[in-house]
Protein backbone atom coordinates (compact mmCIF):
# COMPACT_ATOMS: atom_id res chain seq x y z
CA UNK A 1 0.00 0.00 0.00
CA UNK A 2 1.47 3.34 -1.01
CA UNK A 3 0.58 6.09 1.42
CA UNK A 4 1.04 9.81 1.05
CA UNK A 5 1.49 12.38 3.78
CA UNK A 6 3.50 15.50 4.38
CA UNK A 7 7.04 15.78 5.58
CA UNK A 8 7.63 17.73 8.78
CA UNK A 9 10.54 19.56 7.15
CA UNK A 10 8.79 20.69 3.96
CA UNK A 11 5.48 20.74 2.17
CA UNK A 12 6.56 18.07 -0.33
CA UNK A 13 4.53 14.84 -0.51
CA UNK A 14 6.02 12.01 1.55
CA UNK A 15 5.56 8.58 -0.05
CA UNK A 16 6.02 5.27 1.73
CA UNK A 17 5.33 1.66 0.73
CA UNK A 18 4.85 -0.65 3.72
CA UNK A 19 3.71 -3.99 2.27
CA UNK A 20 6.49 -5.18 -0.02
CA UNK A 21 7.14 -8.92 -0.06
CA UNK A 22 9.92 -9.06 -2.67
CA UNK A 23 12.57 -6.67 -3.95
CA UNK A 24 11.32 -3.77 -6.08
CA UNK A 25 13.03 -1.06 -8.12
CA UNK A 26 10.42 1.70 -7.59
CA UNK A 27 10.44 4.62 -10.03
CA UNK A 28 8.52 7.90 -10.38
CA UNK A 29 8.78 9.45 -13.84
CA UNK A 30 9.42 13.15 -14.34
CA UNK A 31 10.23 14.00 -10.73
CA UNK A 32 13.33 13.61 -8.59
CA UNK A 33 13.04 11.72 -5.31
CA UNK A 34 15.08 12.38 -2.20
CA UNK A 35 15.73 9.19 -0.22
CA UNK A 36 14.79 9.86 3.43
CA UNK A 37 17.72 8.05 5.06
CA UNK A 38 17.72 9.92 8.39
CA UNK A 39 20.75 12.06 7.53
CA UNK A 40 18.90 15.34 6.90
CA UNK A 41 20.60 17.49 4.30
CA UNK A 42 22.69 14.52 3.11
CA UNK A 43 19.73 12.56 1.66
CA UNK A 44 20.64 11.26 -1.83
CA UNK A 45 18.58 12.21 -4.89
CA UNK A 46 17.28 9.22 -6.87
CA UNK A 47 15.28 8.37 -9.98
CA UNK A 48 14.82 4.75 -8.86
CA UNK A 49 14.71 3.53 -5.27
CA UNK A 50 15.54 -0.14 -4.59
CA UNK A 51 13.30 -1.56 -1.89
CA UNK A 52 14.40 -4.85 -0.28
CA UNK A 53 11.95 -7.53 0.93
CA UNK A 54 9.99 -6.39 4.02
CA UNK A 55 11.89 -3.08 4.08
CA UNK A 56 10.10 0.21 4.73
CA UNK A 57 11.47 2.96 2.52
CA UNK A 58 10.27 6.53 2.37
CA UNK A 59 11.34 9.34 0.13
CA UNK A 60 10.42 12.92 -0.55
CA UNK A 61 9.24 14.13 -3.94
CA UNK A 62 9.51 17.73 -5.12
CA UNK A 63 6.23 17.94 -7.02
CA UNK A 64 7.31 20.96 -9.07
CA UNK A 65 6.64 19.70 -12.59
CA UNK A 66 2.94 19.68 -13.57
CA UNK A 67 1.64 16.66 -15.45
CA UNK A 68 0.60 13.02 -15.19
CA UNK A 69 3.57 10.88 -14.10
CA UNK A 70 3.97 7.10 -13.96
CA UNK A 71 4.80 5.66 -10.51
CA UNK A 72 5.70 1.97 -10.78
CA UNK A 73 7.89 -1.01 -10.06
CA UNK A 74 10.36 -1.58 -12.91
CA UNK A 75 9.67 -5.34 -12.94
CA UNK A 76 7.25 -5.83 -15.84
CA UNK A 77 5.29 -8.64 -14.20
CA UNK A 78 4.80 -6.45 -11.09
CA UNK A 79 3.51 -3.55 -13.21
CA UNK A 80 1.06 -5.92 -14.89
CA UNK A 81 -0.02 -7.17 -11.45
CA UNK A 82 -0.98 -3.67 -10.36
CA UNK A 83 2.19 -1.95 -9.17
CA UNK A 84 1.61 0.96 -11.55
CA UNK A 85 -0.11 4.21 -10.62
CA UNK A 86 -0.38 7.70 -12.06
CA UNK A 87 0.69 10.68 -9.96
CA UNK A 88 -0.98 13.93 -10.99
CA UNK A 89 0.83 17.19 -10.27
CA UNK A 90 -1.22 20.32 -10.93
Number of strands: 9
The CATH topology turns out to be Immunoglobulin-like
Helix proportion range: under 10%
Radius of gyration (Å): 13 Å
Shape: flat
Core attributes:
90 residues, mainly beta, Immunoglobulin-like, 5-stranded antiparallel sheet, disordered N terminus
Characterise this structure:
With 90 residues, this protein is mainly β. It is 6% helix and 47% strand. It contains one helix and nine strands. The chain has one helix at residues 76-80, and strands at residues 2-6, 13-17, 24-28, 33-35, 45-46, 48-51, 57-61, 67-73, 84-89. Strand 1 (2-6) and strand 2 form a beta hairpin. The protein is flat and about 35 Å long. The two termini are 23 Å apart.
Compose a concise summary of this entry.
The protein is mainly beta and 90 residues long. It has 1 helix and 9 strands, in the order ββββββββαβ. The chain has one helix at 76-80, and strands at residues 2-6, 13-17, 24-28, 33-35, 45-46, 48-51, 57-61, 67-73, 84-89.
SSE layout and pairing:
Layout: E1 2-6, E2 13-17, E3 24-28, E4 33-35, E5 45-46, E6 48-51, E7 57-61, E8 67-73, H1 76-80, E9 84-89
